[in-house]
Amino acid sequence: MSVWDSMVGQDHAVDLLKRVVASQGTSRDDMTQSWLFCGPPGSGRSNLARAFAAALVSPDHGMGDEPTSESRQVFAGAHPDVTFLTTEKVTIGIKEVRQLIMVSEQMPSTAPWRVIVIEDVDRMMERTTNVLLKEIEEPADHTVWILCAPSAQDVLSTIRSRTRIVNLAVPTNAAVAGFLRTSLGVDEHQAARAARLAQGHIGVAKMYATDEQVLKDRDELVVGLLEMRRASDAVLLAVRLADQARDQAARDANRQIASLEANFRRINGLRADERVPRQLLGAYHEISGKDELRRRTVRRSRDVLDRGLTTLASVYRDVCVLQNDAESQVGLVNLENRAAITELSVRLDRRGAIERIQQISVARRRIEGNGSQLLDLEALMCNLLV
């Protein structure tokens, strides 16, 4: 399969990058070395960065039908000339960026380029971004920087103006469903439903298609919202959502830590039951210690809550669709709950539906601002009462 096959519904961006990589043989001097890939969560901007990096360091420029050993190394995170900065923390620190800058100055060992990929560059504080600015403006002759963010507006203008921006679209439901069928072997009905509920988010669609508990939690949240009538209902629903976020975050964080520990042992030639040598304990505890687990749990909890808020907003989105007689044009997200949503669209006027979508946006900002998640959710649910 091609390095680009993981991209869903991004033909325009893929065609652009293919032309850029193919032109290196004749006009390498014109190669843009600082890129900013922008797209909403789940659009595949990180996957596009990996595919572009793989194409840049592969002898076939990513044009072959089968991946080269170099591209396989990139996707495994093991290529010596491709560095990824990903974080489960709330922000990316100056120390991490300075280490990247040191790496970027080194000559590539085997590939024509040294490629640096920073996912979620929007998580950088302004002071950290300023450290990166000079490297983005005047990269080393052999280095390509690829930054990823939800939108160009999420990045400081000083960085934005010095990069070539590639905007990704929200994949269509049909494209996402097709990807689930071909890549995961999901049946047609299940793939179509997962794609519709995910609203263009490929990662969430995969989750809905493969994790029954996550899909069940979503269904219960929608039903709970539609049946909510009293303040006590609102508080109980908020508690349920907070508990689900905490439990899922803990499961996911423990899975990630276990995977990192297994990879650490594999790289260092250690068996699963073998004691970690003293000289490696420091590095081992960095990936498996309590502080790392806590950071990953906090970040993952926010991601789960964000998905829950998107689910809540989708109900009022559907209300607006029905109130404006637009179902035949755009369809409903929560099609299984059409009867209850129709009833809500009668009890709630158009202004009320829009105000509730805005309330959900306010709650999202408060939760990202390190407030009390439970209090923010309780306040939100009470504000959503009709």
Automatic annotation (TrEMBL):
EC class of this enzyme?
Answer: transferase
The UniProt record lists the EC number as 2.7.7.7
Give this protein's Gene Ontology molecular function annotations: DNA-directed DNA polymerase activity
Give the matching PANTHER family.
Answer: DNA POLYMERASE III SUBUNIT DELTA (PTHR11669:SF8), REPLICATION FACTOR C / DNA POLYMERASE III GAMMA-TAU SUBUNIT (PTHR11669)
Matches recorded under InterPro entries:
AAA+_ATPase (IPR003593), DNA_Rep/Repair_Clamp_Loader (IPR050238), P-loop_NTPase (IPR027417)
The Gene Ontology biological process terms listed for this entry are: DNA-templated DNA replication
User: What name does UniProt use for this protein?
Assistant: Putative DNA polymerase III, delta' subunit
Q: Which UniProt keywords apply?
A: Nucleotidyltransferase, Transferase
Task: Please give the Pfam families that the UniProt record associates with this protein.
Answer: DNA_pol3_delta2
Is Transferase among the key words of this record? yes
The organism's superkingdom is given as Bacteria
Domain AAA+ ATPase, chain residue ranges per copy: 31-309
State the organism of origin: Bifidobacterium actinocoloniiforme DSM 22766
Transmembrane domains' residue ranges: none
The uppermost taxa in this organism's lineage are: Bacteria, Bacillati, Actinomycetota, Actinomycetes, Bifidobacteriales
